[in-house]
Amino acid sequence: TASPSAPAPDAAALHDSAFLRACRREPVEHTPVWFMRQAGRSLPEYRKVREGISMLDSCARPDLVAEITMQPVRRYGVDAAIFYSDIVVPLKAIGVDLDIVPGVGPVVAEPFASRADLDRLPELTAADVPYVSDAVRLLVAELGATPLIGFAGAPYTLASYLVEGGPSKNHERTKALMYGDPELWHALAGRLAAIAGAFLRVQVEAGASAVQLFDSWVGALPLADYRELVQPHSAAVLDAVADLGVPRIHFGVGTGELLGAMGEAGADVVGVDFRVALDEASRRVGPQRAVQGNLDPALLFAPAPVLERRVRATVEAGRRAPGHVFNLGHGVPPNADPAVLSRVVELVQGAG
Ligand code: CP3
């Protein structure tokens, strides 16, 4: 008979799930697969529940968050769920005036420019985001043995939205601040690291079994500047959940030159976009870390045999890495065909 402290059956199955095993670089029966942006506009069931409700309002409703997070799990049978939220949700929660404009992205009413603006970035506590803890608890109960990935935006990517006021191609204001006033930059990035770290902790303490730190736009920096101006702050975010024992994934776009340093920031798994071959990415990241990726999302629009060949090649390359979680090289495009994503999941999980 089970002792009172024995884990529930789900907890044991969850711990042994292909996704968590791959993150820990343990052998797996099939390569686990999930997709960045697996929830969202590519799904008709998502567009239906989002009708008449704004993105940020939907993120504050635990019932909707749980439903939207579950949609791709039900449809595709992916090996992990990613919490439905956004990288700017914790900023909104501490009072930053911002919105997510459909087709554009996060837009900040008063962009950050000076030392006085630091006062607009107080610490985040669990009490600021009760709907996040509530939604995670609902999800963990519903997901059973399927892991839930919590996430946050990394300091550089968050700063790029705060300083530019919205999405930007070249991050000129952000870089002008970073290079022109490194002291203010470090203060800003330090605040953002504290917020992102607290946001990750809230999700893990409520039951998320892995985290992903998105530094989507950090590929805009050369390695030396990354090491000096960004890595310490991303490391602080990852360190904020180090004691909780969950795998930490770290991802950015166009980060070929930074992969080693992003691993050294404290990641157990490094996310790779499609520009670097998975074998080479794994070499850059080293044997003590797993890799995640990296099918070019554009291949979802290629003829079926071409897609199939590329999926199989990615799975094969991943088998030569110490651990591999299959994913796209970036998010699911809004116009992707869900039937094609179903086929990818089938191929990855069935590739014998
Ligand atoms: O399925 C999932 O991946 C989970 C949910 C998720 C969203 N945003 C939902 C969302 C995650 C993990 C994010 C993270 C996020 N948000 C990142 C990092 C990941 C990446 O793509 O690099 C970034 C840079 C953002 C900022 C952001 N929010 C952008 C660029 C956009 C897209 C704007 C647009 O409309 O094209 C958003 C909005 C957003 N976040 C949507 C979703 C489902 C679309 C809004 C909608 O459906 O109305």
UniProtKB/TrEMBL annotation:
One matching Pfam family: URO-D
EC number: 4.1.1.37
Annotated positions binding substrate: 37-41, 86, 161, 216, 330
Alphabetized InterPro entries for the sequence: UROD/MetE-like_sf, Uroporphyrinogen_deCO2ase_HemE, Uroporphyrinogen_deCOase
Catalytic activity: uroporphyrinogen III + 4 H(+) = coproporphyrinogen III + 4 CO2
Places the protein is found: Cytoplasm
Keywords: Cytoplasm, Decarboxylase, Lyase, Porphyrin biosynthesis
A molecular function (GO) term: uroporphyrinogen decarboxylase activity
Domain Uroporphyrinogen decarboxylase (URO-D): 32-41, 149-165
Keyword Cytoplasm: yes
Metabolic or biological pathway: Porphyrin-containing compound metabolism; protoporphyrin-IX biosynthesis; coproporphyrinogen-III from 5-aminolevulinate: step 4/4
EC class of the enzyme, as a word: lyase
Record site: Transition state stabilizer: 86
Biological role stated in the UniProt entry: Catalyzes the decarboxylation of four acetate groups of uroporphyrinogen-III to yield coproporphyrinogen-III.
Family from the record: Belongs to the uroporphyrinogen decarboxylase family.
Subunit structure: Homodimer.
Protein name: Uroporphyrinogen decarboxylase
